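Long-time lurker. I teach an intro course on protein structure, and each term I like to show students one example going from raw sequence to a predicted 3D structure in token notation. This year I'd like something fresh instead of my usual example. Would anyone be willing to generate the tokens for the chain below so I can use it in lecture? Attribution to the forum is fine with me.
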Amino acid sequence: MHIEVLISPSPISPASPHSRPDVGALATFTGLVRGSENDLPISALVYEAYQPMAEIVMHRLLTELAAAHPCHSVFVQHRIGVVPVGETAIHIAIQARHRAPAFALLAAFMDRLKQDVPIWKTDTLS
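-- Reply from a regular --
Happy to contribute to a lecture. Here you go:
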């Protein structure tokens, strides 16, 4: 499986990857910063990461999860720094032969991302 991970302070513009002839599914997820955190209004989230370790852990997680959910490729973009309400914090695109493994890999990765990857967020109150 081809894995690409990009952690950057630059705004994310989700784009669909070019598909291959054996790809029948493209599962994507775009995580946006909502206007409240813990029922309090916020103006932004601030993401911090230990970037080299975060990239290594994401690669390892995706490789492990792909054993149970085989896919062709995964592209992950995660923003760090100040991310205002309404902007994209994370975008994931997964290509697979069929939809079931693409959806399963996406769901499992998002669950593990929050647990295992050294990326932290704090809010900025409105």
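Some talking points for your students: The two ends are 42 Å apart (CA to CA). The mean pLDDT is 94.
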